[in-house]
Amino acid sequence: GIQVEQSPPDLILQEGANSTLRCNFSDSVNNLQWFHQNPWGQLINLFYIPSGTKQNGRLSATTVATERYSLLYISSSQTTDSGVYFCAVEPDFGNEKLTFGTGTRLTIIP
Amino acid sequence: DTEVTQTPKHLVMGMTNKKSLKCEQHMGHRAMYWYKQKAKKPPELMFVYSYEKLSINESVPSRFSPECPNSSLLNLHLHALQPEDSALYLCASSHGQGADAFFGQGTRLTVV
């Protein structure tokens, strides 16, 4: 099956700092999503971005489908940004299997 | 409305119990999913239903039995579970292939 690797696995930053999270995947995809999992386990949709660039407030994401990677940018980090960030992909050969990456645990220190 | 509702939020059950997890969505989505997430790991796919029919079973043990009574509801029936089955169980739905998926808050299951 498709392999999805995220880096870095852990990231500790001071409040106000910027960060870049990376997601590499092994096959072409027709769906790529970024999620933030809060401490209670809820997966919050951040971006649906199989290709291109999107921005939502302090967050933005870019997917370069031809090179099989996606980046999530967080600017001016806040303590509420803490949690685990997952990318999840569905391969192009269309079997509705959304596979999650390994995750990045982000900790923002006040 | 992008809400997927799961009940209960927490469940403690003995190894001889039978229980059910429930999931509901009213977004008109045709695909519904069960995922299992162990601590400090990513969610792992268990089952996919498409148009109320089971389309994917990721070799899940038979002590987990999914059911899709209608297009809005998804159940997961649990029987004779083991302590290692303790995990967060997440339900999701989407319009199908290539569409973005939305997740419920999960049921945190503890098997004693």
Please tell me about this protein's structure:
The complex is a heterodimer of chains A (110) and B (112). Chain A is an all-beta fold and 110 residues long. In chain A, 0% of the residues lie in helices and 59% in strands. Chain A has no helices and 11 strands. In chain A, strand 9 and strand 10 form a beta hairpin. In chain A, 35% of the residues are buried. Chain B is 0% helix and 57% strand. Chain B has no helices and 11 strands. In chain B, the strands form 2 sheets. In chain B, strands 2, 4, 5, 6, 9, 10 and 11 form a 7-stranded mixed β-sheet that branches. A 4-stranded antiparallel β-sheet of chain B has the order 1-3-8-7, with no helix packed on it. In chain B, strand 7 and strand 8 form a beta hairpin. Chain B is globular. Chains A and B meet through strand 4, strand 5, strand 9 and strand 10 of A and strand 4, strand 5, strand 9 and strand 10 of B.
Q: Can I get a quick summary?
A:
The complex is a heterodimer of chains A (110) and B (112). Helices cover 0% and strands 59% of the residues of chain A. Chain A contains no helices and 11 strands.
Please give the structural blueprint:
The complex is a heterodimer of chains A (110) and B (112).
Chain A: E1 4-7, E2 10-14, E3 19-25, E4 29-37, E5 43-48, E6 52-56, E7 59-64, E8 69-74, E9 83-91, E10 99-100, E11 104-109
Chain B: E1 4-7, E2 10-13, E3 18-25, E4 31-37, E5 44-50, E6 53-57, E7 64-70, E8 73-79, E9 87-94, E10 102-103, E11 107-111
Low-pLDDT parts of chain B are: none
The multimeric state of the shown protein is: heterodimer
Q: Which of globular, elongated, flat, extended, rod-shaped describes the shape of chain B?
A: globular
Largest interface by Cβ-Cβ < 8 Å: A-B, 24 and 27 residues
- N-to-C SSE series of chain A? EEEEEEEEEEE
Give the CA-CA distance, first to last residue of chain B: 36 Å
Silhouette of chain A = globular
What is Rg of chain A?
Answer: 13 Å
Helix content of chain B: under 10%
Provide the structure class of chain A: mainly beta
